[in-house]
Amino acid sequence: MALPITATYAALLAIVGIALSMGVGAARGKTKVSLGDGGEPLLIVRNRRHMNFVENVPMALILIGLIEANGGGATLLHSLGGVLLAARIIHPFGLDIENMAKLTRFVGAMATMLVILVSAGWLLWNAFGR
Q1: Tens digits of residue pLDDT in 39-56
Q2: Quick check: helix, strand or coil at residue 97?
Q3: Are 17 and 57 contacting, i.e. CB atoms less than 8 angstroms apart?
């Protein structure tokens, strides 16, 4: 079964993930730290930007794909995918080693969690609520 909407957002998010990964690589080159973060603030932040993406995006995409496979409508799928994409683009700008309370961090994190929660709720409703 093809999942064209999920595939579209997976591809777009892959580009975001590559950009974040490249940021880590650039920081490694600048700091000359091959493994770990060496206590370097730049590398710590860039690692966390990338790892937060890796920690959250796969679950969200799996859930969105399951919704699509179970007959979820295009409007719902594009809403979830669009919010997830926007959240994952803005979230890294809020990760700062000196300031935890940045609006982009909060909005990006909450929007990502909302996508996961709504997706899980839809799937549970679809499985048991009908």
Answers
A1: 999 999 999 999 999 999
A2: coil
A3: yes
